[in-house]
């Protein structure tokens, strides 16, 4: 039965606790109730198409359907290649492993600092560091004094915080590539220096970013504590999520001319896919800017006594 095979598959995988919890959730909610009583050999591509239609018709968001399909495909892949229970993977339908992701917003440098200023003082540096380092929420929440070298302007990322159903847990980053050292710009170093002096105990293992009462920083309570939605809307950033600060930081790094390998390291990714997306997006934007560089723009540049390319270099240095 698919039910018992899938549950055993998840139990036997070497997974981070958060990933295991996610797989268990997807399997129990989207796969087992619909396909669990079938034998592996009874599941055919037509079965998969009918299952997906049923999920979407029942209100399952497309991203969740795609994740459930990817999990099911991985389970069947093991059944084919390792256990040799069946000959072919029924999850071989073109397009089922992808969904359209709307472009997420990015903030300008001015908006990042305006957002930081609008936060309660203990969260101001969190905003600046998130935007200028590109670290994930869980990585930021796990940072300790010993992970930061203010003199060198570096932050080590040796672990992350995962919030599970009944507990919180510190563990290694999402992948081996997530263990990295990230260089911080001067503005982030300055914000951290003020924050450390005001809010962090003077011991190496002290958490840098904590909640209102000094406990572990939790995403579930952060938004309401800082009135996030109202604040970002007031600053002209409607629908801006905290994770979009990471998106902003990655965009800034790509626009500064970082190589694919440098972006992969900074972002903590082991594959080139995300880095190439950022590089493509910034190159397209650069092309738009160049095409919009009309006579009025050139005249303004000449009045300032600079060649157009000099203005571009100055902007890159600022970013």
Give a topology summary.
Blueprint: H1 2-12, H2 17-35, H3 45-57, H4 62-81, H5 109-118, H6 121-133, H7 137-141, E1 148-149, E2 154-157, E3 160-163, E4 168-171, E5 180-183, H8 186-199, H9 219-226, H10 228-234, H11 243-255, H12 260-267, H13 273-291, H14 295-303, H15 308-318
Antiparallel strand pairs: 1-2, 2-5, 3-4
Helix pairs in contact: 1-2, 2-4, 5-6, 6-8, 6-11, 11-13, 12-13
Strand order, main sheet: write it out. 1-2-5
Quaternary state reads single chain
Determine the CATH superfamily of the largest domain.
Intergrase catalytic core
Helicity, as a percent range: 55-70%
**CATH architecture identity of the largest domain:** Orthogonal Bundle
Report how far apart the termini are. 56 Å
- Rounded mean pLDDT score: 83
Q: Gyration radius, to the nearest Å?
A: 23 Å
Spans of at least 5 consecutive residues whose pLDDT stays below 50 are: 285-319
Structural class: mainly alpha
How many structural domains in the coordinates?
Answer: 3
Give me some keywords for this one.
3 domains, hpI Integrase, Chain A, 3-stranded antiparallel sheet, 319 residues, two-stranded antiparallel sheet, mainly alpha
Summarize the structure.
With 319 residues, this protein is mainly alpha-helical. It has helices spanning 2-12, 17-35, 45-57, 62-81, 109-118, 121-133, 137-141, 186-199, 219-226, 228-234, 243-255, 260-267, 273-291, 295-303, 308-318; strands at 148-149, 154-157, 160-163, 168-171, 180-183. The chain folds into 3 domains: 2-81; 109-239, Intergrase catalytic core (hpI Integrase, Chain A, Orthogonal Bundle), CATH 1.10.443.10; 254-318, no CATH class.
């Amino acid at each position: 039965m698919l039910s018992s095979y899938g549950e055993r598959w998840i139990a036997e995988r070497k997974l981070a606790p958060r990933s295991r919890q996610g797989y268990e959730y997807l399997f129990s909610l989207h796969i087992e109730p619909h396909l669990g009583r079938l034998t592996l050999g009874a599941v055919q591509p037509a079965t998969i198409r009918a299952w997906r239609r049923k999920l979407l018709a029942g209100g399952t968001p497309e991203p969740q359907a795609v994740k459930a399909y990817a999990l099911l495909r991985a389970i069947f892949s093991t059944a084919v290649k390792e256990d040799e229970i069946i000959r072919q993977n029924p999850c071989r339908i073109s397009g089922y492993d992808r969904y359209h992701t709307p472009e997420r917003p990015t903030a300008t440098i001015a908006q990042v600092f305006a957002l930081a200023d609008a936060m309660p003082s203990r969260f101001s540096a969190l905003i600046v560091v998130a935007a200028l380092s590109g670290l994930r929420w869980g990585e930021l929440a796990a940072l300790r004094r010993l992970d930061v070298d203010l003199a060198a302007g570096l932050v080590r990322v040796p672990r992350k915080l995962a919030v599970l159903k009944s507990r919180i847990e510190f563990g290694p980053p999402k992948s081996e590539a997530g263990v990295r050292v990230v260089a911080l710009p001067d503005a982030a170093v300055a914000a951290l220096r003020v924050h450390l002096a005001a809010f962090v105990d003077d011991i190496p293992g002290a958490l840098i970013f904590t909640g209102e009462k000094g406990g572990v920083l939790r995403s579930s309570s952060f938004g309401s504590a800082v009135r996030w939605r109202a604040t970002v809307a007031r600053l002209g950033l409607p629908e801006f999520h905290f994770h979009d600060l990471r998106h902003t930081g990655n965009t800034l790094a790509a626009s500064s001319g970082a190589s694919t390998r440098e972006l992969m390291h900074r972002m903590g990714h082991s594959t080139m896919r995300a880095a190439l997306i950022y590089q493509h997006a910034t190159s397209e934007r650069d092309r738009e800017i160049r095409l919009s560089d009309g006579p009025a723009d050139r005249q303004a540049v000449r009045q300032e006594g600079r060649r157009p390319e000099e203005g571009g270099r100055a902007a890159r240095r600022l970013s």
